[in-house]
Design a protein that fits this description.
This protein is of the alpha+beta class. The protein has 8 helices and 18 strands. The strands form 4 sheets. Strands 1, 2, 3, 5, 6, 8, 9 and 10 form an 8-stranded mixed beta sheet that branches. The radius of gyration is 25 Å and the shape is globular. It starts with 14 loop residues before the first helix and ends with a strand. About 0% of the residues have low confidence.
Length: about 350
């Protein structure tokens, strides 16, 4: 998860000399078999299948696509592609797992890249295609073999399991968000989740941000030698788990081929491709044509013909590349025509509305 980049001036330090020095330094490094690092177990509340994540899925189905294999339930999708018996098994795995934080900043603001310490807990998924345009702050999701906690509202593609407390605190210093480090987690932390109800989580979110609730954090160490010994001790079980998981994933891919999902995914993924130039729309004197500023999908239309608007009022929202773009009225007036529909793919310059100025 990390690399070392060295900038050098070859006029002062020849490349061959630099490589020789680096080789010598590498030879002096101790064996990684003896590597031990400080770590912490951070216990975080998790509202399973939280209402905010369900709303994000519902919104995705309304305005992006309602035929995706992960809809209407991300948990059912995770169950299916991992070969588990029920969504209760998904829940059991997530709450039993200890997620090792390998890095921070996956999707902004202290979001962890984490994977289970125990390979028998490594659930895998595909990501949304196309991605969501909205994800609630601190949603918890799985993408590939990684778990992420979203540090802020924004786009995203990980499959939801629930929602937790803030991992970033911009405006307040607390016992766990100290000066200069507004992020909660550190590399090599281990995340452990415990269940809470949705209403309880809302209160915990407020308290963590205010500094009136301290999360349970236990210090420890990570020994690579001990970890390798642990992996060797469970090798048979881990291989069997992986084989069942791969078989289930292959079955899911085959269903996609038979249902046409692979073609549908490519079609949806291409919504931002520029199309032929849009035809011009005739508008008489006193009428303004409002055009698409970029190639996108019409996500939401918020006005109707005959509706009065003021300059700057929102007419529609477009979505492209995980980003929402507002289309606004150019002047005060009345909506004369709506020339687009929700989910329609439009090219740059395509006429969307005609507004009669007043």
């Amino acid at each position: 998860m990390r690399s070392l980049q060295i900038h050098h001036d070859p006029a002062r330090l020849p490349l061959a000399t630099l490589i020789r020095v680096l080789d010598d330094l590498e030879g002096e490094l101790p064996s990684v078999d003896h590597l031990e690092l400080p770590t912490r177990t951070v216990w975080m509340p998790l509202s399973w299948d939280d209402p905010a994540t369900r709303e994000a899925i519902s919104r995705y189905m309304r305005v992006v696509r309602d035929d995706a294999p992960w809809c209407p339930s991300n948990l059912e999708f995770i169950r299916r592609v991992n070969g588990l018996g029920s969504t209760l098994d998904v829940r059991r795995v997530v709450f039993d797992a200890r997620y090792l934080v390998l890095g921070l900043g996956d999707v902004y603001l202290g979001a962890p890249v984490a994977t289970p310490y125990d390979p028998r807990h490594r659930l895998v998924t595909t990501k949304y295609n196309p991605a969501r345009t909205w994800t609630p702050e601190n949603a918890v999701g799985i993408g590939g073999a990684y778990l992420c906690i979203y540090g802020m509202e924004g786009p995203g593609g990980y499959q939801f399991v629930g929602r937790t407390v803030p991992v970033w605190n911009t405006h307040r210093e607390t016992a766990q968000f100290v000066a200069g480090t507004p992020w909660l987690l550190r590399s090599f932390d281990q995340l452990a989740f415990y269940p809470v109800e949705a209403d309880e989580l809302l209160e915990l979110r407020r308290q963590v941000r205010a500094g009136t609730h301290e999360l349970r954090i236990e210090p420890g160490r990570f020994s690579l030698r001990e970890y390798r010994a642990f992996l060797a001790s469970i090798a048979g079980d881990a291989a069997a788990f992986k084989a069942r998981q791969q078989a289930a994933f292959d079955e899911e891919r085959q269903r996609w081929r038979e249902s046409g999902e692979l073609e549908a995914a490519r079609r949806h993924a291409g919504i931002v491709a520029a199309e032929a130039p849009a035809a011009e729309v005739e508008a008489g004197e006193g009428f303004e044509v409002v055009s698409a500023p970029l190639g996108a999908q019409v996500w939401r239309i918020v006005v109707a013909p005959g509706q009065r608007v003021r300059g700057g009022d929102e007419l529609a929202v477009l979505e492209a590349m995980k980003t929402e773009t507002r289309v606004v009225a150019p002047c005060d007036g009345r909506v004369d025509r709506v020339l687009c529909s929700e989910r329609q793919i439009v090219s740059p310059g395509a006429p969307l509305f005609v507004v009669e100025a007043s």
